[in-house]
Write a structure and sequence with these properties.
alpha+beta
Amino acid sequence: MSTLHQTTKELLETHPDVKAFIYQQMVEFDPFVSPNTKVTVIAKNPKKKHSDFKGEDETPSVELHRIAVVLSEDGASIKAEGSHQNIFTAIQIAKENLIQKLIAIQDSVISPQERQMAINQALQNNSLH
């Protein structure tokens, strides 16, 4: 394991600001998950993924945090990754990549007519305060 990988893992597990940010970002999965869905945030080894950041010695020339976010339930899972020099940005990229996958899945199973009906129903139930 590289020092960078350990540092990323350590940040995820022990740094209160990073933990709080993870919880804040994961709230955005609420429309896509059930109460039984398990959300996992994993520190990945950046050396295995980012050859475009490598120098001549085949190690990353910039320090990257590579983060994976996994949603799993009943034996099924979906995952997305994000990488960046800033751990907060890496977490956010991973979350956004996973949300894009979830939206694509949702769009493939919900017809445009069903979507329009849901929008119309939401608009009709809108109350003024």
